[in-house]
Amino acid sequence: MTPKRILLASFFITVSLTFSGAALLAHHSATMFDVAKVIEIKGKVKELQWTNPHIWIQIEVQPASGSKQEWSIEGGGPNSLSRQGWRPTTFKPGDEVTLRINPMRDGSNGGLFVGAKFADGKMLGRWE
Q: pLDDT, tens digit, for every residue of 69-111?
């Protein structure tokens, strides 16, 4: 290869890596979650969405005063979670569960998964 071709190839590789790195960082932004706070919500699992790039747990919460609320909780990727023992059946519809989450900054019914405690005492994630 000529020096000009090597320089051109190096330029395109550098540009490609720069932009792919920026896309990865943008995808993994957690600015919508208040990671300084951890709250607990208790309810029944409506659905576990075992999808890439992140799983979602839909949970129905019944506050002491008010009507039933549906919360959307984001978790990790199916691949990494399966290596930790999770399965698509880990959260089954109707399961009673208490979740610890980092809540949404805007106060909407959602958050980032921190830990779970099932009615039978089984725990997942961080439960301090």
A: 999 999 999 999 999 999 999 999 999 999 999 999 999 999 9
Q: In which region does residue 107 sit, left (phi positive, over 0), alpha (psi from -120 to 50) or beta (all else)?
A: left
| Residue among 38, 39, 50, 48 nearest 95 (CA) | 48
Q: Is 47 in the same domain as 86?
A: yes
The maximal CA–CA distance of the chain, rounded, in angstroms, is 74
Q: How far is CA 76 from the centre of its chain?
A: 4
Of the candidates 123, 88, 111, 87, the one whose C-alpha atom is nearest the C-alpha of residue 35 is: 111
Question: What is the value of pTM for the model shown?
Answer: 0.76
pLDDT tens by residue, 21-73: 444 444 567 799 999 999 999 999 999 999 999 999 999 999 888 899 999 99
Integer Cα distance of 80 and 47 in angstroms? 20
- The answer to whether the CB of 123 falls within 8 A of the CB of 66 is no
Structural domain including 5 reads 1-30
Structural domains counted in the chain:
2
